[in-house]
Amino acid sequence: SQQGEEDPQALSIQEGENATMNCSYKTSINNLQWYRQNSGRGLVHLILIRSNEREKHSGRLRVTLDTSKKSSSLLITASRAADTASYFCATDFTGGGNKLTFGTGTQLKVEL
Amino acid sequence: EAGVTQFPSHSVIEKGQTVTLRCDPISGHDNLYWYRRVMGKEIKFLLHFVKESKQDESGMPNNRFLAERTGGTYSTLKVQPAELEDSGVYFCASSQVTGYPGEQYFGPGTRLTVT
Fold first, then answer.
1. Residues A99, B45: C-beta atoms closer than 8 Å
2. How far, in Å, CA of A79 to CA of A14, rounded?
3. Closest-CA distance of chain A to residue B80, Å
4. Fewer CB near the last or first residue (10 Å), C or N of chain B?
5. Is the pLDDT of residue A9 over 80?
6. At A20, is the secondary structure helix, strand, or coil?
C-alpha cells in the first residue's frame, strides 16, 4: 500500500515552542499536502509541496520534502494554543489519478 | 466564495436503513472526491468524479455504496443497506485542476452513526 505514516502520533508542547511532525510514504509522488483537523471539524488545507520542490514556507509553517528518503516534515514555529489539532500528510502518488493517500496523523497539543 | 459544503453534518440510522449524503463542491471545480474515516483509522479514498463521470471508484468498499453526480454539480453518496461498519466520517473534497495535481479542499464531513 502507498499508505503514509506519521510520527510522532502525539505531541505536547508549550505555547511559543516549535513543533515538528514527520511523514513517510512508500511510492513516488506528484505532490504532498499537509492538512489540519480541529476536533470534530473538517480538514483544512495547509500547504502543498510538489515532488520537484525541497522546501516551502507559508507563514509560521515550513515544509520540507526529501524524495530520496520518501519523507516530509512540517514545522510549526512559535506555536499557539489555537494550533492544537490533528495534522495529516497526504500524498498524490504517481499514477494514482489525483486521489490522496493519508497518513495516520499527529495529534498536537499546545499548552498555555 | 463558499467552500465545500456537506449535508447532513450528522446522521444516526439503524442497521439496514438507507442514508444519502450530499456534497456541494466549490463552484467551478470539476473534480469531486469522496473519502471516509472509520473508527479512528486513516482517511481513505472512496471515489473521484470529473464533472459527472466517475474517474476512479477503486476505493468504494462494496455495492452497498452508490455515488452520483448528476449534471456535474453536487454529488450524493447513498449507503443501502447500512451496516455497523459503515459508521465514520465521510468527507467530500473538490479541486479545480484536472490532469495536474492540485490542492483538494475538503468539506466539514458528515458523521454517520449506524446503530
1. yes
2. 8
3. 24
4. N
5. yes
6. strand
Give A83-99 pLDDT, tens digit per residue: 999 999 999 887 777 88
pLDDT confidence band for A6 (50 / 70 / 90): confident
| Distance of alpha carbon A59 from alpha carbon A74, whole angstroms | 12
Q: Specify the DSSP class assigned to residue A85.
A: E
Nearest to A99 among B56, B103, B107 (CB): B56
Q: What are the chain A neighbours of B106 within 8 Å (beta carbons)?
A: 35, 42-45
Return the C-alpha cell found at A78. 512559535
Residues of A within 8 A of B103 (CB-CB) are 33, 45, 48
Task: pLDDT band for B101, please (50, 70, 90 cuts).
Answer: low
Report the distance separating Cα B95 and Cα B29, nearest Å: 5
AA identity, residue B68: E
Query: CA-to-CA distance for B78 and B12, rounded, in angstroms?
Result: 14
Q: According to the model, what pLDDT value does residue B100 have?
A: 57
For residue A2, pLDDT beyond 50: no
